[in-house]
Structures are given as C-alpha cells and as structure tokens.
Request: fold
Amino acid sequence: MSFEQMWADLASVGRSRSSGGYFRPAFGSAERECHAWFLDQCATRGLETRTDGNGNTVAWWRPEGTGDQPGVLTGSHLDSVPDGGAYDGPLGVMSALAAIDRLRERGVAPSRPIGVAAFAEEEGSRFGLACLGSRLATGQLDPATARELRDRDGVPLPDAMAAAGLAPDLGDTSLLDGVGWFVELHVEQGRGLVDLAAPIGVASGIWPHGRYRFDFTGEANHAGTTVMDDRHDPMLSCAMTVLAANKQARLGGQRATFGRFEVTPNSTNAVPSRVTAWLDARCEDDATLAALVAEVSRLGRERAARDGTGLEVTAESVSPAVAFDPDLAARLAGDHAGPDWPVLATQAGHDAGILAGAGIPTAMLFVRNPTGISHAPAEHAEVADCLAGVDALADSLERLAG
Ligand code: GLV
Ligand code: MN
Ligand code: MN
Reply:
C-alpha cells in the first residue's frame, strides 16, 4: 500500500470537524483505531508483532538469516495533543511501514531485523507525563508512579489500559531487548529546514524540558461584594507568574509556556479559590532550565505573598538534555546520494530522546514543515517531502541493517 493510501486511511480518525485538528488521547477510541490499523498493516506485511505491558507495540521484519542479530528499530507514536496536527507521530509510524516496503521493492536483504514501534502516550496529553510508554519500557520511570497516574476524569492509567483491551504490566522492560539502534522520523516542529531550504534534516540533540504544576490557592468570595483590597485572588498571582515566565524566557533566549489551566470553581461571579497552571519550560542546557524554573517560581511566590495567596510548584516530568550519537548523525546526514542533510537541534521532546537516554544509539530524521507550526491543526508537510522522508528513512535503515 502506498504512503498516500496509508495517509488517507487515518485522515479522518480523531479529527475535529470544526478546527480540522486531531485529538487522539492515549488508549482512547481514536488512538485505538489508529493502533488497530497499525496492527492490520503489520499483519499484511507479515511482521511479527508484540505489545508490551505498557501499551507499546513493536512489529519486526526478520528476514531469514537475521537470527538474533541486534535489530534496527524505527517508528514513533499514534497519540496526539488536544487539537493537534496530523503529522506529529503518525508520520513516523507510516514512514516506517513505507520504508520497509521501499527496501523490499529495492530487493534489499537486511542482515539485521528491522522493527517498527508505536510508543504509548508520547505526548503525555492524557496522563500528564510525556513519553510515558518509552520511559516505562526503558526502565526510566518507576512503575509505582505510573500506576498512580490519573487522567483529567480521574481514570487511573491501568484502568484506561484495561478498558482499551490491554493487559497492563507497567514497567515491563522486555520489548526493546535486542534493539541495537533506533531511528525516529518526525515532522519538523519549527522552521529550521524551511530556512535552510532542505526537505530532510538530522537531529543533533533535544533541549532539556519539563512540565511543572503551579498550584495557586486563595480565598473564594463574591465577585461583587468583595472590595478589591480584601481579596486573596489566586488568579492575579497566576496571571503575574505567566507574564514573569514569558519575560524570563525572552530575556534568556529560552522557552516558557503556560498552556493549560484549571480554575476552581470556575465561576464568572466568584473570586476563585484555586488556580492550577502548567508551565512547559525548555532551555538550551540543564542548568539554564533549572535556573529559569527557579526564577519563575520565586517571582510567583513573591507575588503570592503580596496577594495573600499560596503557591506550590511540583515538577511533573523533567527530561534532561539529549545529545544524539554524533557519529551516527553524521553518518546518516552524509552517507546517501545528493547533498548532506543539515544537522540541527530541536526543542521538542521525543521517544528517541528516551531511548538515547537508555544507551541505545539513536538518531532522528526530520521532514520539512513549511510553516513550522506544530501541536496545532495547521501542522503540515508536503507529500513530496513526506516521500523524500520515506526514502531517507529507507536509506538510513539500509545503512544500519546492512
Ligand atoms: C512533544 O511533542 C513535546 O515536545 O512536548
Ligand atoms: Mn508532539
Ligand atoms: Mn511526536
């Protein structure tokens, strides 16, 4: 099946008619439909498929004679952020299947197995912890912590998995046994490749990033009868903290975003009793990230003290800086027909960063995104660039798998 046909298969799954964006939360119906499609595609290709106790799936092509050689794994994820784009995740999974087709068309007989992965809850949109599936599969997250995770409706992770027909065994680390290399193809989420007029790029590394929950507490009261000076309004403390985060990130050339809020009781005519806000911060190195979050927290507490409110800051997930194997990146960037692919850093998180952190030699390929917009309905890649990505991935797999 061609790449274009595969793309058409999933084009309407989890898509909003009003915005055109996608929402495929982990273990929800849209993501499950994509996952069932993935299993079907793997079966059609005769791949050997296994889903682990964390909800990750890997499908292996094991040509005769590859035996227990370490394998080359590729793939990405099928879940999305709320109202996200079509490409973030599925492009890597579909390109992996299409690259296997390409290698077979070329008559390549790999001397190592080639696997395709679909990792669970990469975005952390449902349970709050990014790259949940790959963290568990590489032993980088305590299964007890994962068991306690709940979605916004209070559904525990194991229950959500069971409701999706899975048998949860959180912390199962058997799926990646025998993986010698990992290559993730992903739509670029910025304008690096557009600016370089290059359809394909290779990642040098990932900026460290984290998610931090800011709980502001105050005193609920009447919006009309409470004079302004008598209020202990957590919304004010929160608003000032949002502005401070933006200013601090700008001053240092870093990134800070408050994109999610919960207001209690969320009533038009009452001063709120609580505001919970999530900071997503990303910096060029680990020390700068720690300093940025510390400064935003300090400024938030200072304001809270003036407002007579409280602030507690909790780090929900922190991912250290990732430097991908430079030799592998250089090899993939140069060892093919045509001009070298540019090597560039990214500020977006990926399962590839988690696998690299587990000591697996890892690389990433990026496909040009004409506007650089991502995590939004306008995320896009031209078909010609997607097909160039499939070829690039096939070339890379051929180099690595022999
Ligand atoms: C995932 O795409 C992230 O960067 O948050
Ligand atoms: Mn994403
Ligand atoms: Mn992604």
